[in-house]
Design brief:
alpha/beta, Rossmann fold, 7-stranded parallel beta sheet, 47% helix, 14% strand, globular, binds acetoacetyl-coenzyme A
Length: 249
């Protein structure tokens, strides 16, 4: 039997990440869900059991994606145990929403470190394995708010816009080696991250979404698995929006 391709999904146990893991497992990949959860392994193990109950065999691996050494330990472990990572989905991300005039330095740095510097930390550690084998898929999860900006999210919008700059530069460097690098920009997806936004603000946002609803995480997972496919080798440096029409360009 041909060896299964290995996919690492950072933030794999989260709102969108869970569905990316499931979709990639459905497509026959061997999936590893990266988790942080402030080091709470029990929560990740519980998540893993839930997936198993639903018929999904998904490995879990701890990393603090803000920290290069932590990512190195994580990726070394996966590589030794399973082999070279073929598909990387840089999905983990956080919000620290507040208007800019109230934003504290720690709120800026937490978001830039977790959402943007993580792109360097994780990708840097998998890229040479992909180049050596002449195949790789890197899929970076940005946001509609990186494209249009969002009131209360100067930190998040900056980090998410930065992601696509990273995608475009790296895509050029690795294109000849069978490695594609793309961005997916989800709109407002019905996960706990969105439910943290005050109800009246959320309702206002909903009014600006032409399809008239928030997205489902499966609708993002579908785009990711499309880009991950062996057959998607001509798509690189692109930014695919899935936002219900909230932002068109
Ligand atoms: N445009 C213009 N003015 C606005 C506004 C907007 N969108 N929203 C609020 N304001 C105004 C208010 O009317 C108010 O004005 P007055 O003082 O004149 O009454 C003022 O701004 C409020 O300013 P404050 O500093 O007091 O802000 P706040 O504490 O009330 O709220 C906030 C700040 C919590 C960040 C709020 O703006 C908010 O929740 N924004 C939405 C953030 C958001 O969309 N987050 C998405 C999270 S999910 C995600 O990020 C995933 C993804 O990728 C899509």
């Amino acid at each position: 039997m041909e060896k299964k391709r290995i996919a690492l999904v950072t933030g794999g146990t989260g709102g969108i990440g869970t569905y990316i893991c499931r979709e990639l497992a459905n497509k026959g990949y061997q999936v590893v869900a990266g988790y942080y959860s402030n080091g709470n392994k029990d929560r990740a193990v519980e998540w893993q059991k839930e997936q198993a109950r639903d018929g999904y065999d998904i490995a879990i691996a701890f990393a603090d994606i803000r920290d290069y050494a932590s990512c190195e330990a994580c990726i070394d472990g996966i590589t030794k145990e399973m082999g070279t990572i073929d598909i990387l989905v840089n999905n983990a991300g956080i919000t620290r929403d507040t208007t800019f005039r109230k934003m504290q330095p720690y709120q800026w740095h937490e978001v830039i470190d977790a959402n943007l510097s993580s792109m360097f930390n994780v990708t840097r550690l998998v890229i040479n394995g992909m180049l050596d084998q002449n195949f790789g898929r890197i899929i970076n999860i940005s946001s509609v708010n990186g494209q249009k900006g969002q009131f209360g999210q100067a930190n998040y919008s900056a980090a998410k816009a930065g992601i696509h700059g990273f995608t475009k530069a790296l895509a050029q460097e690795v294109a000849r080696k069978g490695v594609t690098v793309n961005t997916v920009s989800p709109g407002y997806i019905a996960t706990s991250m969105i439910m943290e936004v005050a109800e009246e603000v959320r309702n206002e946002i909903l009014k600006g979404i032409p399809v008239g609803r928030f997205g489902a995480p499966e609708e993002i997972a579908r785009v990711v698995s499309f880009l991950a496919a062996d057959e998607s080798g001509f798509i690189t440096g692109s930014n695919i929006a899935a936002n219900g029409g909230q932002h068109m360009f």
